[in-house]
Design the sequence.
């Protein structure tokens, strides 16, 4: 054990020397294995830690814009239009692209879960995707943000969802409810009528079933991002909230392994 430990850890051979060519060859092979084991361990673990931290930071960035789809739109609305919200969309497009590549390179990231609701990337991603659905199909075109920015982040979100195949996630058999247009109407944001919205989003059923499965796989329910009626997910980030006021996930909500 002493000799093998020294050899595999690439520290040398300790006080013992291999005798005979067969043992010398075996020692050389063990040294090479130890070198690759130590090198690859650090070369793989450090980027994973960095990618996991990046994932949480992206989730917090989205949560700072709003915890649910309607809250994201309401916070971006300035009374006349969505102002500089397209700048956030441009930034989010780059973030989602990077996140998708990280998940492809390190599939283990699918198993990194956050118990803090505003740091849960799954909740942020689904809330953002629903907000984009509202913007693209629920808001009249003259009042939408810059089309190039909106379509870019929409495709970046779809590209990330495509990486979920590596996590063996399949669409659920049920459709999650659509975002509630009435909540944004109450804030004076122009919208199409409900029937037009439902008809325009019919082709999104498959996409939304994947989103529902993603949320369930992360240990949450759809109510966690459905609307401000069902959650106050990012309210602890507001000025009037205590800094230690963090909402945690119940123990029985964690996915079983």
Sequence:
């Amino acid at each position: 054990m002493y000799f093998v430990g020294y050899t595999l850890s690439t520290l040398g051979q300790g006080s013992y020397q291999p005798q005979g060519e067969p043992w010398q060859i075996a020692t050389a092979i063990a040294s090479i294995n130890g070198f690759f084991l130590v090198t690859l361990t650090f070369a793989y673990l450090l980027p994973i830690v960095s990618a996991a931290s990046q994932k949480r930071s992206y989730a917090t960035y989205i949560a700072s814009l709003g915890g649910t789809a309607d809250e994201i739109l309401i916070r971006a609305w300035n009374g006349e239009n969505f102002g500089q919200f397209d700048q956030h969309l441009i930034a989010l497009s780059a973030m989602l692209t990077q996140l998708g590549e990280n998940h492809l390179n390190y599939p283990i990231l699918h198993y990194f879960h956050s118990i803090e609701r505003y740091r849960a990337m799954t909740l942020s991603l689904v809330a953002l995707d629903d907000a984009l659905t509202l913007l693209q199909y629920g808001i009249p075109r003259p009042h939408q943000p810059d089309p190039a920015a909106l379509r870019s982040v929409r495709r970046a979100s779809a590209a990330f969802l495509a990486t979920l195949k590596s996590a063996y996630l399949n669409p659920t058999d049920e459709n999650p409810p659509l975002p509630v247009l009435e909540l944004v109407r109450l804030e004076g944001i122009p919208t199409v009528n409900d029937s037009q919205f439902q008809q325009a989003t019919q082709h999104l059923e498959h996409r939304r079933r994947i989103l529902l499965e993603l949320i369930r796989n992360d240990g949450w329910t759809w109510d966690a991002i459905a609307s401000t009626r069902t959650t106050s997910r990012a309210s602890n980030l507001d000025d009037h909230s205590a800094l230690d006021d963090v909402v945690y996930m119940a123990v029985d909500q964690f996915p079983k392994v």
In short: The radius of gyration is 24 Å.
